[in-house]
């Protein structure tokens, strides 16, 4: 009998990573900080930080320079705003 826990490796997802809808990430893969994975992509190997990767299998199509990206504090603020927006929308729907 084979123990599945011995065959599966954890997935490592860095900080401020965006993963598109229906993306598949194989076990043992690491996605670098501040990266984006395109919708429907199949991530079969590690992706570096600060990149955009898409495809089946996933390939890096763009490296993002630090001048192109917002600061971590700005990203945290955007996530908080998005969370507040969805919370308000759900509250309004529940009150109908």
From TrEMBL:
- SUPFAM superfamilies membership: Trimeric LpxA-like enzymes (SSF51161)
- The reply to whether Transferase figures as a keyword in the UniProt entry is yes
Query: In which family does this protein belong, per the annotation?
Result: Belongs to the transferase hexapeptide repeat family.
Q: Which residues form a coiled coil?
A: none
Species source reads Aliivibrio finisterrensis
Q: What is its EC number?
A: 2.3.1.-
Q: Pfam families in the record, alphabetically?
A: Hexapep_2 (PF14602)
**Alphabetical list of InterPro entries matching this protein:** Hexapep (IPR001451), LacA-like (IPR039369), Trimer_LpxA-like_sf (IPR011004)
The yes or no answer to whether the keyword Membrane is present is no
What is this protein identified as? Answer: Acetyltransferase
- Write out the GO MF terms: galactoside O-acetyltransferase activity
Q: Which domain of life is it from?
A: Bacteria
Q: Which UniProt keywords apply?
A: Acyltransferase, Transferase
